[in-house]
Every structure is written in C-alpha cells, then in structure tokens.
Design goal:
Structural class: alpha/beta
Order of helices and strands: EHHEHEHEEEHEEHHHE
Strand content: 15-25%
Number of helices: 8
Bound molecules: zinc ion
Largest sheet: 7 strands, mixed
Distance between the termini: 15 Å
Helix content: 25-40%
CATH topology: Rossmann fold
Amino acid sequence: MQQDGVPESAMVVVAHPDDGEFTVAGTVAKWAKGGCRVTYVVCTDGNAGSHEPGITREELAVIRRTEQRAACATLGVSEVVFLGYDDGQLEPTLDLRRELVRAIRHHKPEIVISSDPTRLFFNGDYINHPDHRAAAQAALDATAPASEMPLLWPEVGAPHRVRQAYVHGNDQANEWVDITETIDLKIAALKQHASQLGDWDPTEMVKEWSAEVGKEKGLAHAESYRVITFQQLPGTD
Ligand SMILES: [Zn+2]
C-alpha cells in the first residue's frame, strides 16, 4: 500500500464496457493518479447493447472496445483485457472463473474490484443485469481462493494471493473513497461510451449518486465499498 491508501496494483472486473465508468471510475482515477497500476477486465463486448437499426454484433463489439479503451485512457488505466463473451448471455461458469484466475495470476493485483453478485435490484426501479451478477460472482470466486491454489489450473499461471476485494453496490459498505477530485474524470471517461449515451449528458445523475454516497461521511463525492480483507495463512507470503 502506498501513501494515502493507494494500492500498488488493482484489477477491475466488469461485465460490460461502461460498467466501470458508471460505478467505480472515481476510485480508479484516484488510485491511478496516485501511482497504482490498474488493469480492467471486461467480460463481454457489450455487443447486444444497441437499438440502432442494421448494426451487427460484430460491428458493435468493435465500437464498444474502442470506447472502453478511450475511457480507460482517460482514467489512467494501464491495461484493458477483453474476454470476448457475448453480451446478455454471461454466466458464472468454471470457464469464466478460470479466465479470471488467468488474468489475476498474470497481472497480480493487490486488490480486485467488482460489484455485488447478490444484488438483485436497486431502488425499486432497476433489476440488476444478470451479466453484472455473473461477472461479479465469477470475479469473487476467482479472487479467493482460486487464484492462490497451486493445484487449481496450474496451466493458467503461478498462484497469486489477492489482499483485498472491493465490492461495489453492497448495502453494508465499510469503506468510502473520496472521489471529489476525480469526479470530473469519471464523467469524462463515462462520456467516451458515446454509443450508449446518445444525446444524454450523465453529469447530473452521476454527481447526484456520488454526492448521496458521500453525504454519510461528509464528503462532497464518494464511492462506497464492502471491503473484504483476506486472512493471511501461516506459511504463505
Ligand atoms: Zn452493464
């Protein structure tokens, strides 16, 4: 851990291009500015996320990967990994878990950021997308204990122990990250997803969300997490 609580490395696992920007990008931008090496893993190409007549899934996948790379460049993310699953059909399979173990063992993040797989709906007006739940479930299952088990999938890399999981969207948060200085970067990154936003300017809504989260801790803008700190077993480093 570096100064001001900034980790040395982190990995964000999301289902779709734009999920990270709607949820955790203020934290990502803050950590990246503080010297953290951040990797994004995007499970699907978001290639069903369009109502535009005539567009194909292949064309949309290219557009959405390009938008995600631009968003990550805005945030200072070091690398983006696309797993290439189809939008709308993601499941927390062993295959997905193994691919996430591969990414964790390769990039060796100190912290994995995901959303909450148990969250079925929010605020009485939104059912959490099944892809979000699937990606989050697979991310947490890959994080611990799978990534640190030497006999599990040795062909995808040497074991790595993640120190903490940051779970976004849980209603029992125990960590608030002050994003007052990076809220504008979060919004700028979100705006890179032009195919999803159309003419809509998300600024007001995103600021309302982060102000609401920050209120409890006297912060102008915040993102909150349920942080799980994994116990270090005797004899491991
Ligand atoms: Zn999504």
